[in-house]
Structures are given as structure tokens and as C-alpha cells.
Design goal:
By secondary structure, the chain is an alpha+beta fold. The protein is built from nine helices and four strands, in the order ααβααααββαβαα. The protein has a four-stranded antiparallel sheet. Keywords: Cell membrane, Membrane, Transmembrane, Transmembrane helix.
Length: 223
């Protein structure tokens, strides 16, 4: 097909393209604003390593730093363990299952540092903040009971989230618009591909390679 043929197809089927794109975009907007409940997340950071005193700060060497950076990965798994989750549930008197709480938690090391970021997602912003704060405390308590070493240092408290982390309606709408546009264009080309009828003299000349010497008019044109 040449460019002008593509333009003719779009011009002929523009209503279908607009309709499909509009339906997809509006559906995404309705789902994002009215169906999906917003989810909030609260973050809290802890430092993995022994508390720094004035004397120990001068004695800290490269091997100690590397050891604590490796411990960060270990404690990231520790923070998501069943034992820590059970401790949080007991301390906060939560009615949820351990598996439910674990699904709300994500832990990630901050690059090649001794920092560990704990993230809690919840439909309730205050619950997300409270669980994040307690999770850091439970990690400190449980790890001390297991390792007999105070390697988890509290840095600051989680803050009350003021904006939902998801959904992001504008982003969803933009994605739905482009998906709807691509889908509608695909549907139009499929319709054109399956349409075997000849609609003009130019199409006949193109198919048979011979000039058209006459056209029988539609009788409705003379009514």
C-alpha cells in the first residue's frame, strides 16, 4: 500500500478508530478513579551495623564496612521472615494472617551502603506508617534475640503518606489511550484486509491491469 491508500483507509474508518480509542481511554479512567482502591506506602530506613561510639568510629576499617554491607542483604531477607511478621502482628494486635502481612512488605538495600529501606503498602495510610515503624522495631528485637548482637540501628520513623502510591490515573489513562489507538488501527487494517469487495474503477484497474472503459451507474443516483 502507498501512503495515500493508508490515509484513505484512516479517513474512511475514522469513526471506528475514535470510538475504540475513546472507549479504552474512558474505561481506564473509570477503573482508575472509581474501581481501584488507592494504595499507600510508607518507608523507613535502618542502618545495619553496631552502634558507633567515639572510640569505635576511629577503629572502623574497610573490612568492617564490607561485612556490614553484606549483612544488609541478609537482613533484607530477615525483615521479610515469618518470625518478624509474627512479632509485628503480636505487638500491634493485628487480625491479619502472617502471609497477608508479608505480602504488604518489601525490603531493598540502598546500593553499596549499610542502609536498608523497608516499605509497607496498605489501603490505610496510617496502617502503612504504623506497620513500617513497628517492623523496624521488630527486626531489631528479633535479630538481637537470634544473633545476640545489636546490628539494627534505627535512623528515623516512617512518615504518614499523604498521596497514594497507586493507582496513577493520569499514567493509566495515557497508556490506555495509546493502546486503544494501536488497537483501533489494527482492527481497521484487519477489516480492510478481509474486505474482498471492489469499490471503485481504480481498484479494478489495479487488480486486472486493464483500463476501465465504462461504468454502470447506480440507479439510486437518478431517483
Amino acid at each position: 500500500m502507498e501512503l495515500h491508500e493508508y490515509l484513505q483507509i484512516f479517513r474512511k474508518r475514522w469513526t471506528l478508530i475514535v470510538l475504540i480509542t475513546l472507549i479504552t481511554t474512558l474505561s481506564s479512567a473509570v477503573v482508575s478513579f472509581f474501581v481501584i482502591k488507592p494504595t499507600y506506602k510508607a518507608d523507613i530506613s535502618v542502618i545495619i551495623g553496631k552502634p558507633k561510639t567515639e572510640s569505635s568510629a576511629n577503629q572502623t576499617n574497610y573490612n568492617d564496612v564490607m561485612m556490614y554491607q553484606k549483612l544488609v542483604k541478609t537482613y533484607s531477607q530477615f525483615a521479610q521472615s515469618r518470625t518478624v511478621a509474627e512479632n509485628v502482628i503480636n505487638k500491634m494486635n493485628l487480625t491479619m494472617k502472617v502471609e497477608t502481612l508479608q505480602s504488604m512488605i518489601s525490603v531493598s538495600p540502598m546500593g553499596d551502603t549499610e542502609f536498608l529501606t523497608i516499605t509497607v503498602k496498605s489501603k490505610d495510610p496510617k496502617q502503612a506508617m504504623d506497620i513500617a515503624n513497628q517492623l523496624a522495631k521488630s527486626l531489631k528485637e528479633v535479630s538481637y534475640n537470634v544473633n545476640k548482637s545489636d546490628n539494627v540501628q534505627m535512623l528515623d520513623n516512617a512518615q504518614l503518606p499523604t498521596r497514594p502510591a497507586s493507582p496513577k490515573p493520569l499514567l493509566n489513562i495515557a497508556i490506555a489511550f495509546f493502546i486503544g489507538l494501536m488497537l483501533s488501527v489494527g482492527v481497521v487494517f484487519i477489516i480492510e484486509y478481509l474486505d474482498n469487495t471492489v469499490k471503485s474503477a481504480e481498484e479494478i484497474e489495479k487488480l486486472v491491469g486493464l483500463p476501465v472503459i465504462g461504468v454502470i451507474p447506480n440507479i439510486k443516483d437518478f431517483e
